[in-house]
Amino acid sequence: MPTDFRSDHGSSSAGKTLRSASAGELVAQMVTRWAGSTGAFAVAVLFVVIWAASGPAFRWSEIWQLVMNTVSSVVTFLMVFLIQRSQNKDTLAIHLKLNELITAVEGASKRIVAIEDLSEIELQGLKERYQRLVDEVAAEQTERESV
Questions:
Q1: Does residue 67 form part of some domain?
Q2: Label partner for 103 (CA 20 to 30 A): which of 35, 46, 111, 122?
Q3: What are phi and psi of 3, to 5 degrees?
């Protein structure tokens, strides 16, 4: 896989030529896009309305309730993994984009490129360090404004 994507700048097909998605990934992407659509919400609402309207026909039986409980449990179970997969992919893409920006900016600390690999304690320490820098800059700005 190429490591320099700069040749893609300005290209409308950037990323598409570098792709080699598996069939499973393509299906997951399609389902993820559809599940977040207005159409999917409409189908879910329609399913609930049909289920509720059919209650009297089934005399509000346990089987009638079990159908909804089972379907909603299965859909929820599958959606948890689909949502996690989508979030993992989005997070990775954001990290890569930020890493590109960090490495492109002269004077930026290259040490934070792999920051996502730090422990929570290390991240908290780094956050405190950057908070001190923010406080210093704010104090300097306030001092300049008062002069």
A1: yes
A2: 122
A3: -100, -15
76 with 22: CB under 8 angstroms?
Answer: no
For residue 45, give its domain range: 22-87
How crowded is residue 65: how many other Cβ atoms within 10 Å of its Cβ? 13
Report whether pLDDT(15) > 50: no
Residue 124 within any structural domain of the chain: no
- The fraction of the chain above a pLDDT of 90, given in percent, is 73
Helices (DSSP H) in 36-119: which residue ranges? 38-53, 62-104
Query: Tens digit of pLDDT for each residue in 52-76?
Result: 999 999 999 999 999 999 999 999 9
Helix, strand, coil percent content, the chain, rounded in steps of 5: 75, 0, 25
Provide CB contacts within 8 A for 95, sequence distance 6+.
116
Residue 82 lies in a domain: yes
Measured in whole angstroms, how far is the alpha carbon of residue 40 from the centre of its chain? Answer: 19
Structural domains counted in the chain: 1
* 74-95 per-position pLDDT tens digit: 999 999 999 999 999 999 999 9
Strand, coil or helix: what is 13?
Answer: coil
